[in-house]
Amino acid sequence: MSHRGFRRSGWALTALSGGLLCLACNTPTQPAPAPSADPGGPVQPKVNRVVLSLDPQATESNMSIDGGLGLRPMYETLLDVSLDTGKLVPMLAESWSIGSGGNSINFKLRKGVQFHGGRGELTSKDVDATYEAIAASQLTGTTVTYVRTNVVRRELPNDYEITLHMKQPDSQFLEYVSSQTQGAYVINAAQLAAEGQPNTAGKPIAGTGPYEFTTREMNQFLRFKRTDYKHWRAIPEFPEMEIRWVREPSTRMASLLTGESHLAALPEDLMKDAEARGMKAIRGKVSAFRAILNFHCCLAKDPWDPNSGYVNPNTPLADVRIRKALNKAINRDELNKAFFGGKGELIHNNPYHPTKPGWNPAWQQRYQEAYGYDLAAAKALVAQAGYGPSNPLKLNLVIQPARGLAAAADVVEAVGSYWRNNLGAEVKLQTITGTTELRAPDANDQIVMWATSASMWAGTANYGTALIESNRIWGLGLPDADLVLKDIAGTLDDKKADELWRKMGDIYFEKYKFIPLHYLPVEIAANPQIVSDYVFPGSISTNWTHLEYLKAAR
Q: In the predicted model, is pLDDT for residue 323 greater than 90?
């Protein structure tokens, strides 16, 4: 059946590999990306302002610690992610080293980095103020929570060094001070002290990125300009840039074809149409983006006691037989062809991959029996769990924006149709616009679509673990797996960590932690008359990063 056959029909009315801290104990040999051409040189873009048409963020904010994709162009972090490999490389910190025992990390800052608006040179006081703001914040974002929880003291040996002291060795901490995550953007200390954190009516605190903030219209667009000085790292070829929020994929497509925008995030069917009309599909360099369904349920009474039971044991999702049945009632091959253009690579155990730590070949060998499409087995499991015509299985399936996966709503509705038609389930579709609705105390009986490029660490820590927030309801609570995850964070030994990742993966596989779908390429459609190329990793959850490297057509 074609994609168009699914859409709005009876079928269809969501990296780094968690590398160890010790791998980065010495200054990395890979340099930061080379700067682009000088604005006074031969590059003359055909438009002054390049416009990107993207699906909206769940929330908007002018706070650097909660700014998400929208504010990325104006900020930098201590560490960056390589455009080609997804590995950590220097950014504002030109080197880093691990203290004795692994309880501290010293960062040596790059000299000469300037803040926007003539606010002076970056020093360790600015980094200190950034992490003080994170420590004082009441926000619950993953980066903010992780840094706030783990950093116990900050030390400033001089203007170009800062040492973060942690409560315990943490093999994953560097990820949270890099561009892999959002919320650790370094801001200007003097401006923060004078003005405080901004509200949405004001302007963000000055950053050091290649683009400088100019204005925004809430829920409509953000605009930036190239710095009026030679940036230390990259000089964008487009003097101005606009990120335009457009919810409907068809509207993004129309905007691209009419020249109102020059790049657009599109679902697979519209991407094909755009290419047929002369547009160019540009793909991220690192494979990490994946579509999954997450069991948003089953908060453990004691997150560190595997025998404590669940706060809401009456949800059918607490029964492993139901979780297995829901997995086996989905035809992933059909979904891949219909919505992903056949480009998807099957996920055997989220967030694992054969190229990453902890991979167990047995998962691939056992996949068909454990997760593969088998209606007879799925129906039998539902019946064994006590559900049938007189006691129908009731499911709450959430539709929410999934950045980078424009077809997310269609995928969710197709999955709901599988369960409705194949298992006789009563599937209630719930549309939400932001994750706040998932944080409600009674939000403990849902299945949620996620599209993410999160690293192995974030891909586990963010989706239902106790390690970051003991009372968070972000996914299926598995205290036995959380205990292993805690050990992973505390080990700096590569071999031991690999063994622990595999041990935790075995728990995930056996207990059906997720409904894994596919690894997918991260693609954006571009007008080749305006944008000739765009090199970006695609392994970061907000997808469209490093926009300073957009190349103007000659």
A: yes
